[in-house]
Each structure stands twice: as C-alpha cells, then as structure tokens.
Known about the structure:
The structure holds two protein chains of two kinds.
Chain A (H helix, E strand, L loop, with lengths): L1 H13 L17 E9 L4 E9 H11 L10 H14 E5 L8 E8 L2 E9 L6 E6 L10 E7 L5 E5 L6 E4 L1
Chain B lengths: L1 H26 L41 E11 L4 E11 L6 E7 L10 H4 L13 E2 L8 E2 L1 H12 L5 E7 L7 E4 L2 E10 L4 E11 L3 H4 L4 E5 L8 E6 L5 E2 L2 E2 L3 E2 L15 E10 L3 E4 L2 E2 L2 H4 L2 H10 L6 E4 L1 H7 L7 E11 L4 E4 L3 E8 L7 E8 L4 H22 L7 E6 L4 E4 L2 E4 L4 E2 L5 E2 L2 H19 L12 H19 L13 H4 L17 H21 L1 H15 L6 H12 L4 H8 L7 E9 L6 H14 L4 H8 L5 H4 L17 H13 L2 H13 L2 E9 L7 E7 L4 E6 L10 E8 L5 E6 L14 E2 L7 H7 L10 H4 L7 H13 L1
Parallel strand pairs in B: 1-15, 22-23, 23-25
Antiparallel strand pairs in B: 1-2, 2-9, 3-8, 3-12, 4-5, 6-9, 7-8, 10-11, 11-20, 13-14, 15-19, 16-20, 17-19, 18-21, 21-22, 24-25, 26-27, 28-29, 29-32, 30-31, 30-33, 33-34
Helix pairs in contact in B: 8-9, 8-10, 9-10, 10-12, 12-13, 13-14
Amino acid sequence: MTKQLYSFLVCFLLLVTSAIVANMALAHQQKSAETTVLFNQRTGQLEVSHRFYIHDTEHAVQSLFDKNADIINSEKTQRQFANYVARQFHLRSLSDKTLPISSLGFEVEGKFFWVYQETEIPAKLSGVKIFNGVLRELWPTQINMVNIEGKGEVRTLYFSENEDWLIAKF
Amino acid sequence: METMKIIIRNTIAVLLLPLAISSTVNASAIKQTKGDFEDKFRQLEEVLPTPNVYRNASGEPGEKYWQQQVDYKIKVSLDEKKRRLTGYEKITYQNNSPYKLKYLWVQLDQNIFKGDSIANVANNFGGIGRRGPYTKTGDAQTPAKISLGELRRQHFMTDNELGYEIKAIKDSRGKKLDFTVVGTQMRIDLPRPLKSGDDVEFSIDFAFNIVEEDAVSARSGYEHFPEDAREGGNDIFLLAQWFPRLHAYTDYEGWNNKEFLGRGEFTLEFGDYEVEIDVPADHIVSSTGVLTNPKSVLTKTQRQRLESAKNAKRPVFIVTEEEALENEKEGTDKRKTWKFKADNVRDFAWASSRKFMWDAKGYQQGGDDMPFVMAMSFYPKEGGDLWKKYSTESVIHTMEVYSRYSFDYPYPTAQSVNGPVGGMEYPMITFNGPRTELQDDGSRTYSQAEKRFLIGVVIHEIGHIYFPMIVNSDERQWTWMDEGLNSFLDGVAGREWDPTIPWGVEPRDITGYMKSENQVPIMTQSDSVLRLGPNAYTKPAAALNILREVILGRELFDFAFKEYSERWQFKRPTPSDFFRTMEEASGVDLDWFWRGWFYSTDHVDISIDKVYQMRLDTHNPDIDYGRLRQIEADKPSSLFVERNKAEGKTLWRDRNPDVTDFYDDNDRFTVTNKERNKYNKFLKDLKPWERKALDRAVKEDKNYYVLEFSNVGGLVMPILLELTYKNGSKESMYIPAEIWRRTPKHVQKLIVTDKDQELASVTVDPGWETADVDVENNHYPRQIIPSRVEAYKAKKRSGKVYRDIMQDIKTKLKSDEDKKTASDKENNS
C-alpha cells in the first residue's frame, strides 16, 4: 500500500505540468504520428524521420510552449517542437547503450510536419530499444507508430499509453 | 481413478474435435491446398451476405426492404445550477419488420459514465486505444503514472452521480412496464407482442447529471467559463446522446445490441421529433429541427434579422457580439421554452448558453426537395472573428459540394455550434471546437493553422449530416462507412475551397501505415480496430481516392457514388450494399479491389524486376545470319586472347599464311542456298495472311520489350508505367490490375515500339498515385533514390521560409556609431 501511494505521489509531481488540451474527443484530429527508422546501408547512416499531422501539432505547441505558438508560420515554434521531439525520442542498443542521434532539421510539407535525426549505424547491432513519448503525455489517445526499415521485413512498434521502451530484434 | 481420467480425456477429445473442425471451416470456406496460388480476383461470393428480399444482389434496398420508425415527443428541462437534465419522452414505435417483437431495446449512452459500466470496469489501465485522460502503468523500476487529467476524471465521477435515472416507463394508459437495464442498454418488456405493422406508445421519465466535457472526454457535456463577468461564471451546454433512444432493429442484425464502449458511435431509427426545451430565459438554444414558437422566445428584432438573413450575401447577426457580451454578464430566474420540430431524422441534439452570439445566412439550394436551407452558427466571444467569418460560410460550402456528389441537403437548417467538443455531428447540428486566443492587449487572434482547422472541421462535421445521419450506416460496427466516405468527400470540398491549403488524403499519406505490422483489415468492428485514425479514416479515404482517380475515372466513380447515396438516402446500408452498388453502377468488377483494400492487410508494392529486348526473327537467312554474326562480333573478346596479343605472342596462322582453306573466308554464319531454299519453301507454305503479317513485321522491324514485374506487397493494382525512350520522348501506359489474375506474384508484359522508339528506362507509378510503399524498385534500370533524410540534407537551406522573422524583426538598425564600436571591439579582441 505504502509503495503504491508513493508511486502515485511521485507521478503526481512528475506530471503536474502536463496540461490536458481543451478536449480532444473529436472525430477530426488523427492524434497519430509516424516515425521511420531507416538503416540506410548505402550511406551507413541510421536515419530517423518523424511525421506529424499539422492538425495534431497545432494545438500541441500552444500547450507545450505558449499560446501564440504557430507551427505553420513560426520557425521558432518549429524549432521548439523539433527539440521537444528530440527530447522524447530515444534509441538504445540491446545492451542499453545510448545511440547518440543528432538533430538534422525539420520542414512543413503540405499537411505534415517532419522532424529529422540521424546517427551512424553502429557495428554489430542485433536490435534496438526505442522510446517514443512524443505528445503522449498530452493526449491519452496519441499513438506513435515506428516503422523500422532497411533490416529485412518492415518491423513496427506502437507507442501508446503504457508503452515504455520497446524492442525490435533483427 | 486413473481409468476414469482417461475416459474423461477421451470424452473431451471427442467433444472438441467437431468444434475445431467447424472453426476452420468458418475461417475460410474455400481452401487452396495445392500449390500456393491465391486468387486475388476471387469473387466475394462467400464473403458478402447472401442477397435477399431486403437487400438485393445489386446493392439496392430489396423489394421488401423495411426499417422501423420511432417518433419522439420530448419535454426537457435544463437545471443550469445543478447541471442536470430532467425529461419526459413519449415514444411511438412503429414495427415495420415482418416479425413480432416481445420487447424493445433502448440505448442508455449516459450510463457509460456509471462507475460500473463495462467501459469503466473493463478499462485497461493504460491500455491501447482507450478514450479518456492519460494513464501509464509502472514496472519494477518505474512508478506508475497517472495524469492530473485522469485524477480529474476519477474525481468527477466520484463526486457526481452519473448515468441515467430512469424513473418510470409507462404504456399509453399509464400502466407501468417492466424494464431491465443492462449496462448502456435497457430492455422494455411489452405487455403483449407487437405485431408486424402495429405500433406501440410508451413514455419514459428520465434525468441525469450532465458531465463536464473537459473532465471525462465525452461527445457532449458542459464547459465552464469561470472568468466570465457573471458571478460564478457561465456554461455552454452541448446535449447529445441525452435521451433514452431506441436501438436499431434491422434485417441484417436484429437488435443491434452492442454495448456503448465510447468509441464505436451509434446507429438509430429515423423518426419525427417534437421537442420542448425549457432553459433559463436568457439562453439561446441551437437545435436539430426548426423552431416552431419563435414569437415566444425571440424578440421582434431577432425575428426580423432572421428574415433578412434569408437573402443576405454574408451572415446576418441574430444575436450580435455586443448583445451576447451584455447577456453573459448576469443571469435570470425566468425560464423560456423553445419548441423544435424535426421530421425524418435519426437523432436529436441541442446546445444552450447565454454566451452565444448567433449568425445566419440563407442558402438557396433550389430543387424540389428543400429549395431553401438556413445555415447558422452559434458561438461565444471565444470563437471571435474566426467564427464570424468562416463558420456559416463553411456550412454552406459543404452543402454546395456534397449535394453535387450525393443528393440535395434535405433538411431546413444546418448549424455549427462552438463548445467544448472538438468535432461531432448530429442531424442539422454539429459541434466544432476551434477558437481564438485572447492576447494581453485584449484582442483575439488565431493562427493560420486554427483557421484551416475550423474550416476543415466544419466541412467534415456538416458532411457527416449526409453520412451517416442521412445515409444511415452503422457507426458502432463499421466506422469506415461514414468516416472513410466523409474523409474522402471533405477532401473534395476542401480542395474546392482553396487548393493551396493541404486538404484530403493523398495515396502517399497511407503508405507508412500500410507497410507496417500489426494491422487489421478495414472491415473490422469499430471497437476492435487497433488504430482507428488510419484504419477508418485515412486508408478507406485513400482507397476511394485511388478508385476514383486511377481505377474507375471520375465519371464512372462519381456516377456510382451518387447512385449509392441516392439509393440509401434515409435508409440503412451495410458494407456489401456499398461494394455491390459501386460495382454495379460503374459496370466494373471491383471484387479484387474490395478484397485487397477492405478485407486484407496487404499493401501495394509493385517492383519492375527486369526489361529485356527482343527482335523479330525474319526467317530470311540473308538477314538473320548477318544479325547473328553481328551479335557474336559485339561480344567482348576473350581476356586470354587479348593478353596474348598484349604480350606480343604471334599466331601460328600468321606465321604460316601459305596454308589456308575455304573456312578462312567463310565463317559459321555464311549463308548457302540450302538455307535459302528452306526459306523459300517456308514462304511458299505460308497462307496469304501469314505472309502479309510477316512481310509487314519484317519491314517495320519494331522493338519488342518484355517487362517483368513482381508483386511484393500482395495487393493487386493496375500498373502505371512511364516509358522513356532514347530520343527523350516519354509515354504513359496503364496496365489494368487484371494482369495479375492468374499469376498474382509475377507477371510479364510485352511492349512493342516503333523502330526509332528505343526504350531507355521504365518507371512504375511515377506520380505516386497507387500508394506503392517502396519506390526504389519502381525504376528500371534501378536508380539511387535518396531517402527522405538524404533528400532533406541535400536541400538548400537558404529558403526565405527558414528565416526566423519573429526573432529577426526585433533587430535594431545599426547606426555608423555602432559599427565603429563593433569594429573597435573586433580589433581589440
């Protein structure tokens, strides 16, 4: 009982800042993001591209940063959001070694906002551990799909509410 | 004892065996057990339900099609202070089915908020696809997480008695009827069975406490505005799923008993409604239907404004912003009753608040069904200019576009209401969320994104009045039938609003999802779908887009889609009715398309593996032997021989030129009369038409290419080709999906081109029209296709769009003095 109470208190403190954005029970927003982790054998790079619906991010940024945040027109907001994504997305080897992914940039393309990252493909990688927490503390129904490509068949990890670190072995 | 056990085991084995067999049979009625051939074009015969007198084989309502009718007369009162709704409804249930009914089932959607509802008790803490605030389970190392939102939800549900209080259910003579509540459903036992063709009248007294929408993530509820000038603030009330509503009873499902779990929405029966809504006298009410007592609830000025709105160019304010602001400053104890009437609707929703301003503009639709429609919007000051400018106009734009693709908007009003719900639809009324932001200087602004969002969501929700409020598909079972069709059409309407705004669904948008693991087919019950967004919205919308633009063409698609809409207007279609109508009205066999896109999790990935060239054999030895000699000569010579040459080795032949014979002058391709005689005989034996064909082919000497394709993704699709020739010209070619019919994994296509049209390269689907997930194998010869990241890195980073103008604009203009100081500093450092 004590332990349980303790854990609730801890998280209470952890999440005090997570504002619930004015109701998102709508039939319109997708609340789903797609990430591709590509082992580009040609360049030796492990490339990460995150794709967000602008509809999803437009309200998120107002809640995450400030109410004047504008994902379409403000580069400041775009950079802030890309940095936020970088803080919420992590790669590790199966032996829990962090893969230091660096930010490449971001762009708006039609109804999508893209964020790019990369790192060198480490030698002898038999799998990856991934954490993708983007927008999930904001919205209960946010689902982040990660496709891992360039290692045979496409592998898919779904990050929704209770998912912490997920593993894909090759 | 031991013997006994064995006997039991045997019995179990015997019992289990037939079950196991029958379940395999259910899984697939047809089995291909030899080889690995899969008939991707197999007709959907055992997949679609057997046609019958209620819905026929063409996808039309059958000769004996029936549906129930349920009429409601409701009196309801809103207690603003207690946030409580009390109502009395008189229901007339008309049994048009050929069967007698001993009991009726009623939906009690408000019961989802009861602590013991299935939705709550079966709530997988932190589970996938859950509606409601964020929770996260812990493990040995990490503490479990619960968000403040989840705590707020739990507190709200503990502090408030939620769900229906059903006080009395009585028949028309006032005699109490037995009823049994089963979660979000209720069975009412009729005193005697209701015969086919008869109707029964009964009444229900009900009440419930309204949920705070923001606290529980519902589709309706109240929103509180504590900052308003009025003491205690104000509320906006959105009331939907608010009265006990009869479950659908259908020819394909009987009673649609599916517990409301929050995600799968609902389907209902059509009927006529008369609803009296009693609210505080200073409230403005927006509702399904037409106001029948305007003189009792509107001022003379308001009625005049409504009249002038009918032919106005831009929306006219019935309640202006100033009036609304004044109104929301204080309350009243007085009450008013707004009376509404709505005919042939499948549901009834309303909204009420003293915060509403109200604008209206008439839409002269023309036609016989509903020549005039009043479009209206209701919103608080928080909606601001965004709503004033675009809400009502978006409502009208939607009707203009949707009617072209389906049928005339059949109701007298179409409304958009701003409240706490992000986007939700009901007959004649929609709830839409986007708002303006209050700035420190007191002004209200909105971003470009918010503007797109408002127009987009209004189009989408008003579009839902067509699908599924009029074309009454069953959302609780097949979300895609309304969301997929509507997402397709809202893209059409959006692009007609302003094509520079990225609307709609492009085939490329869905490739990431379609190549991923762990999917379910589109044809999956709503509550079981793993990812509702891509599965019920994007994928079916992309599929319809492809069906229209690539497979059928606009003319056939639009004709068939309109036919489906007209056939099922005010009726109840199932997926098979859609599939059959689209096929029948377009005249194109689409079973392969439905099978691939709706019944499977295959994706599109067509690879061009090989191209090889062939030349016609003329049979004329004087031509063919020469060509063969040339082919031999074109081969690279032996490295061995080349190196010998390089080393200066001399040949025996060269050293002994005096020894020669016939073969030194005649190689193995030398033609003799033996071959010529054979050729002449061959020509003589040809029939005249054969001779003609050969002569022409030899003369034209065309290029023959064989293109080899493989289907990596499994989903059969047309092959869209771009052929590039050596002379630089390009040609498009369309190979129908039927090419895959007998060899679904691998096909070859022969292409014949003129002599001077030599093929240089081939590209599959160059315009990304088919949702092909891997473009790397779409080129022959193969090309290096830069990955998304590579392409991004290669882009020049100097575009003006990358300037941080917001920051840069703060830059001070430097004077000469500044420059001097700066250069001094540099010199010093």
